[in-house]
Amino acid sequence: MSRARALALAALVAAACGAKHEEQPARTEPLGKGSDGGVAAVADGGAAPVLGPDDDGATATPPGSIAAWQAVIDRDRYLARRGQGAVIVGRMGGDAIAPGARGVIRWLVDETEGNGALAVRVALAGTPPAEGDRVAVRGAWALDNQRRWYWQAESVTAVKTPPPAALPEAPLPPGHQLTGGPPPSGWKPVSRGKDGGVIVFGVIKSAVADGDGWVIGDDSFSPPIANLTLPGERLSYGGHDLRHDDERWQLKRGVLYWVRIDRYRRKTPDSRAYLRALTAPVKVQ
Prior knowledge:
By secondary structure, the chain is mainly beta. It is about 10% helix and about 30% strand.
């Protein structure tokens, strides 16, 4: 093989390795003792971004921080027992329970999806922020006395970036709690659903794995119309899923539910639709 061909082959191999490397997810930096900054997910070979407060003690959304529920999806990467950690961002909710956890236990509500229903338990030292405050919480996952996960906070910083736009529906209680109520005016059965509208549906088949979607129809005994992905249902990287049952939606056949969806997608006019719910499922009453 000529020297020129050998160099060209080496360059192609290096480029392929580089592309493969870029596809890998961000790593977390270890939770260092005495650190004055926040620990957050950073790219391989990068440095952990520092959570530096502004003059008024608040920060914009910290670089490298993640939404609260993303820390649940990728829990395997943020375990305190391994010395890992991250900075998660959300809105401070009300009281939560985590027996044996150190500190005051509160919900931290994810503002990016679920309309209030997706939240994590956080254990806070000292006086907790007021309910409704938007905060960045540096910490990692630990287990309470009931073997349930909670986020052990190391530091909390106020966040002053504007919150995401609110949905028309009132926020729901945190913690995957199913509530009941009538659907908003203008709702349609899923077979006649529209972009951004409210659909009523019944479960025909449960989701096999996160991200697969629930097979739904106008009721549980009608022909299948769509696959519906509910808030927070995404695969964990590498299949390392550490979610508990109370961190998954528990829907039943023979019950009607309603949600607001984003877009009504079909690959062909006759194919099954693929829908993503913007709100948590609510039992039709």
